[in-house]
Structures are given as C-alpha cells and as structure tokens.
C-alpha cells in the first residue's frame, strides 16, 4: 500500500521534473541536476507572475488602459480640489505673510534710517556746540589775558613812574646834600688847614690867607 | 509574486464605482492622489497658520517652496507669468508630494502611471495653447517661426518647431513617468536580491550585503530623483508658459 502510494506520488513528480527539464533545456542546455531544479523554481514564480498579470488584465500595470478612466477622474477631482485650495487659500496666505514681512522689514529699515539721521543730527549739533563753546572759551581766555596784561602794564607804568619820582627826589636830595657837603668841605679844609698850620708853625694865620690857599689848592 | 517588481504598480479597486459602463472605481491610485493632495495642502496650511513674521522651521519650508517656485516662474516666464503661479505651484507640490509618498514602503506611486503624468502634461500644454491663442490670437503661431531664419530654410524649421511642440506633452509626461517607474523597479529588484540571497544561508547573507548597500544608496538617489523630477516638471512648465506669454521671443 505504502509502496504503491509512494510510487504513485513519484510518478507525477517525475513527469513534472521531465516537463521542467524539457522546458528549461532550451533556456539552459548545460544544466546539471541542481541547475534544473533552480530554474524549475523560477518557472513557478513566472507562472505566478502570469497569474498576477491576469489579475491586471495581463498587461504591464501602468499601460493597463482599463484603469485610465478611473485614474483620470480621480486625478481631475483631487488635483482640481488641490489647485483650488492652493489658489484660494495657500498662495494668498503665504503671499501675504511674505508681503507683511517685506513691509515690516522695509518699515524697520526706514525707522532705522530715520533714527540714524536723528542721531547724526544730534552728533552734528553737539559738535557745533562744542566748537562754539571752545571758541567762546578761547575768546574769554584771550580777553582775560589781554586785560591782565594791560592791567599789569598799567601797574608797572605807575610803579615805574613813582619810582622815577622817588629816584628824582632822591637824586635832588643827594645833589643838595652833595652841594652842601661840598660847600662844607671848604670850611672844613680851612679849619683843618688853620689847625695844621697852627700846629706846624705855631702861629695863627688869618682866615683870609687860609681860604685863599685852600681855594688855590682846590684848583 | 511578492518579488515581482511590477506588482507595486498594480491598480486595485478599493470602492468599485461604475458609471455608464465605465469603471470609475476608487482605487489605491485614487487613494494616493487624495493622500498627496491632502498631505501637501495640509502641510502648507498647518505650517503657515501662525502667519509668523519670524517663521518657524516648518513655516520657512513652506515659504521656501513658495519662493522657489515664484523665482523659477519669474525667471522663466517674466513677471507677467506670475498669474500662472498657483498652477505651477500646485503642479510642483502635487508631483513632489506624490513622488515622496511613493518612496514609502507599500505606498502607491501616483506619478508612476503614464496616464497621470500624461494628463498633467496635457493640462500644461492645454493651458499654454489656450492662453496663447486667447492672448495673441493667431500671433501665437509666431511661436513656430523663429526670427532670423533664411526663407529657404523656413519650411524645414517650422516643421521641426511644430514637431518639437507636439512632442512636448509626450516628453514631459514620459520623463516623469519613466523616472519614477524605473527607479521603483530598480529598488524593488535590488531589495528582492537581498531577500532571495538571504534565504540561501550564511554565504547568501554575506552576499546580500552588496545589494543591501545598493538599495540604501538607490533609496537616497530616488529621493533626489523624486525632488528633481518635480523640479524639472515645474521648470519646463515655466518655459512652456513663457512661450504662451511671449510667443515671438525666441
């Protein structure tokens, strides 16, 4: 029983193997035992593929014209709706976002340039005032210097004048004293001479003789 | 079947709807269109709800994407092109979100369906043609007659211009579609290598490191591609709109 069953099973297997060998001998003539079994597997998958393509009416799926109508309809519906969403909602929205940003940037730049010009104005006023103050300060300093100089000059003049007066007074006084002294010199000389003569000669000389002699000696 | 790299692009019905014998089912593709629109508009709405003069981080992401598209459109189509800003912005955000959502595991990539990218490209070209004729009448056809071309060459040049104009919706849609498709297939294939090599035992696990590194690198690349393709789509939209606004300028 079991032997016949095994035989019955082996016969279709042999037939199947024979079929595959005859089929594959065209494709792979130099096939050994292993080589024939592998293409047999391939053949099975190929028949499987054939089955699958029957499912899609037997043509390469993208060229299966039976699906074209449905694809066209659904493409028209989906792309149409997508186009409407894009043109009515998305494009205006992103456009307005970009425009708002652009405006905002332009506005900020304007504001920045306005502030910058204000700052520049402030700097130039500041510098102008600084220059004014400096020149004013210089003028005041010059004036003060001039005034001080004039005052000093005047003082000097005054002091010089008073000194000159004092010098002149002193000189006249000195001249007076000198004159007086010179005038006294004759009397002293006469006195001294009369005293000297008296001592030397032991006799008195007249005053007239002595003054004549002093005068002669003074010449 | 799990390793089938095209399985991820299968459109499965979630809610079957049929109108007049035509299948308008709500599918996983529809679900991720809704998700892309919802995620993109939700993000933009919520991040800008503060309307901050000084933006928060997320708000500045929204503003950056706005200004990114605005400067792209202004450079591409001049200041008169700004009336198309909602359109270009919607296209960019929708495609970008759909691409990025598609990068999540198990998520469906809306832009990997040629019909979706083709519809978006036709929307752009349709806008260009309609606005061009509305604004310039038949003067819009000057677009096909470049300046300074000798008379003898004119028929040839005009033919080339018309062909290049007609190929625009195709190139615009196929570029986006093929980039997303190829990227996702490549990722799936390399990730599949990791799984199938890992099942082969110790040696296989060692060998699986290479495709794993590749998958990680490709994931990074795909995020770049997801952004880049949305960018390229938006840039080309700007250029085509420029043709509608200034038809005789090139």
From TrEMBL, chain A:
Residue stretches of biased makeup (Low complexity): 16-28
Q: Which family does it belong to?
A: Belongs to the ATPase B chain family.
Q: Briefly state the protein's biological role.
A: F(1)F(0) ATP synthase produces ATP from ADP in the presence of a proton or sodium gradient. F-type ATPases consist of two structural domains, F(1) containing the extramembraneous catalytic core and F(0) containing the membrane proton channel, linked together by a central stalk and a peripheral stalk. During catalysis, ATP synthesis in the catalytic domain of F(1) is coupled via a rotary mechanism of the central stalk subunits to proton translocation. Component of the F(0) channel, it forms part of the peripheral stalk, linking F(1) to F(0). The b'-subunit is a diverged and duplicated form of b found in plants and photosynthetic bacteria.
Which residues are in coiled coils?
A: 109-162
Q: Which Pfam families match?
A: ATP-synt_B (PF00430)
Give a yes or no for keyword Calcium in this entry.
no
Q: Where is this region: Disordered?
A: 1-40
What transmembrane ranges does the database entry give? Answer: 72-91
Name of protein: ATP synthase subunit b
Topology of this chain in the membrane: Single-pass membrane protein
| Self-association and partners | F-type ATPases have 2 components, F(1) - the catalytic core - and F(0) - the membrane proton channel. F(1) has five subunits: alpha(3), beta(3), gamma(1), delta(1), epsilon(1). F(0) has three main subunits: a(1), b(2) and c(10-14). The alpha and beta chains form an alternating ring which encloses part of the gamma chain. F(1) is attached to F(0) by a central stalk formed by the gamma and epsilon chains, while a peripheral stalk is formed by the delta and b chains.
Record's Gene3D superfamilies? 6.10.250.1580
Keywords in alphabetical order: ATP synthesis, Cell membrane, CF(0), Coiled coil, Hydrogen ion transport, Ion transport, Membrane, Transmembrane, Transmembrane helix, Transport
Cellular localisation: Cell inner membrane; Cell membrane
UniProtKB/TrEMBL annotation, chain B:
* Pfam families recorded: ATP-synt_A
Its keywords, alphabetically, are: ATP synthesis, Cell membrane, CF(0), Hydrogen ion transport, Ion transport, Membrane, Transmembrane, Transmembrane helix, Transport
**Membrane topology field:** Multi-pass membrane protein
The protein's matches in InterPro entries, at most eight in alphabetical order, are given as: ATP_synth_F0_asu (IPR000568), ATP_synth_F0_asu_AS (IPR023011), ATP_synth_F0_asu_bact/mt (IPR045083), F0_ATP_A_sf (IPR035908)
Major subcellular site = membrane
Q: What subcellular compartments does it reside in?
A: Cell membrane; Membrane
TM ranges are 29-48, 84-108, 114-134, 143-167, 187-214, 221-242
The family annotation for this protein states: Belongs to the ATPase A chain family.
**What is the stated purpose of this protein?**
Key component of the proton channel; it plays a direct role in the translocation of protons across the membrane.
Please identify the protein, giving its name as recorded: ATP synthase subunit a
